[in-house]
Amino acid sequence: MEEDELKHKAVRSVIALTFRTIFLQLIAAVALFLLQIFLSPSQIGVFFVVTSLFQIFTLFTDVGLGAALVQRHEEIEDKDLRTVFFMQEILVVMAIALGVAVTPLIRAYSHLDAAGITLYYVLLFTLFVSSLKVIPSILMERKLAFEKQIMPQIFESIVYYIIVVYLAAKGFGVASYSWGFFVSALVGLPIYYLLSPWRVGFAFARDRAKHFLSFGVFYQGKSVLSVIKDNLFTVFLSGVVGTSGVGYWGTAQRWAYFPYRFMVDSVTKVTFPAYSRAQHNTDILRAGIERSLFAISVVLFPLYAVMTVNINSLIQLIPKYTKWEPAVISFYFLCAQALIAALTNILVNVLDATGRVKTTLYLMILWIIGTWGLTILLIGRLGFTGIAVAQFLVAITIVLVIYLVKRFVNFDFVGNVLWPLLATALMTAVMVAMAKTLPVSFVSVIATGAVGGIIYLVIIWLLASAKILATARLILRAYHR
Question: Within a 10 A sphere around the Cβ of 366, how many other Cβ atoms?
């Protein structure tokens, strides 16, 4: 793929994924808002625990084989696809069998009731259904055809949220999630094969399998550690702070990560295959890193400022939301952690795309030790709030990631985050003053956010108009082409 074509496809893909993410996150935000009214913290905590268990078993179904296909520079053949599919299906069956076998242990440790176990079994079933979607999705991803890839994802999500919210409103409790996952997993499957046809088949080419595993094991090794750091961590917490504590912390984290999902997931998903194609050209890598850091900073810094300033007022104003007040302090720390993680994620993606998966593996080990160690230390003193504090402290290790990437790409980190940070600091000072002066009402919340937004736009334009215009021209050229 030529440099110009790669750049334009990457830009179009980022925009497509960003709009998809914005659309889905808006739906998810509305759904979460309603579910927090219809369900108790304990019921939502059960959802967090069971979905974390699901992510643990998902690890055993891939071992990085999909990422190895995406990262491969040469053209892939049908026997490559069939070899990966064959190995993956074996792993899926083994993971489901293991999941069923350990059910008694899970029920005893996390104190899950019948509804929680049913949800657990439904998610094991969707593990098999999801494995059938992998090859068509990879084929689209290799071509950076994310405009197509987002269609089944959008459809599945809409079906899922409609079912879950409707049933929760009718009093189905945790069972609402079970029906939502079951139906949405099935309805999306045929769409993948319509958009990216592939004749299902099995093969096993030993040389190809060895090649994919040589990359995939290290790549998935990082994912294994990530799941230990996050998902196994959630399961562990269920036995320490209970499903209610997990519900408070998980809900704060879910809200804190909404802006993150709006943009970072889209940028990361595109930059991995894009950086992989350009891994030997440091000029393209440097430009891509700097554009990504600047774009994320410009968008996310002010969004997090508005959220943190207005969260207390919103909890007081929204009926039946005062039950979530214990999670506010966790929300502050998690917003800061998510913002740092957004920048870190771009840099970790560069390490992966350039083949430095061992480095990211060591980073994950460091983050696991830090997250688990600090949480165990702080949770006894701060309760479930200690979880968020520990995550924030671990996020500060971004300085190490910057150093590691700078060893082979001389990019400018400070220059691409400084102006958005300064503009955000000024708008935050004004918003805090308004929030303390005005009476609490929806009008004052809207006015505070609007005034802060205007101040930010004016300041960021004065400080970084050249970069903003350059990014806009790149987007326009990509779509004009």
Answer: 14
Do 336 and 428 belong to one domain?
yes
Same domain, 166 and 209: yes
Q: Are residues 147 and 218 in the same domain?
A: yes
Last-in-domain residue among 181, 196, 230: 230
Pick left, alpha or beta for residue 198 (phi over 0 → left; psi -120 to 50 → alpha; otherwise beta): beta
With 80 as the cut, is the pLDDT of residue 196 above it? no
Domain count, the chain: 2
Residue 207 pLDDT exceeds 70: no
pLDDT tens-digit series, residues 275-315: 666 556 677 778 778 888 898 899 899 999 999 999 988 88
Nearest to 297 by CA among 144, 449, 447, 463: 463
The pLDDT score that the predictor gives to residue 444 is 92
- Parent domain of 225: 1-230
* CA dist., res. 8 & res. 76, Å (int): 23
Environment class of 21 (CB within 10 Å of its CB; exposed 0-12, middle 13-18, buried 19+): buried
| Whether residues 84 and 188 fall in one domain | yes
3-state secondary structure of 278: coil
* Same domain, yes or no: 394 and 436: yes
Identify which has the larger pLDDT, 377 or 13: 377
In angstroms, the CA 146 to CA 196 distance is 11
Evaluate whether 310 touches 445 at the Cβ level (below 8 Å). yes
Distance from C-alpha of 335 to C-alpha of 257, rounded to nearest angstrom:
7
Give dist(CA 406, CA 295) in Å, integer: 19
Give the CB-side neighbour count of residue 84, counting CA atoms within 13 A: 27
Tokens for 327, please give them.
């999670």
CB atoms within 10 A of CB 84: 25
Residue 235 in any domain: the answer is no
196-202 contacts: CB < 8 A, separation 24 or more?
196/136, 196/137, 196/139, 196/140, 196/145, 196/148, 197/136, 198/81, 198/135, 198/136, 198/139, 200/85, 200/132, 200/135, 201/78, 201/82, 201/85, 202/82, 202/85, 202/86, 202/89
104/4 Cα distance (integer angstroms): 55
Residue 220: band (very low, low, confident or very high) from pLDDT cuts 50, 70, 90 = low
Beta strands per DSSP E along 275-341: none
Q: For 99-124, what is each residue's pLDDT tens digit?
A: 899 999 988 888 888 999 999 999 99
List pLDDT tens digits, range 37-67: 888 888 999 988 888 888 777 776 665 565 5
Do 369 and 423 meet the contact criterion of CB atoms below 8 Å apart?
no
3-class DSSP assignment, residue 76: coil
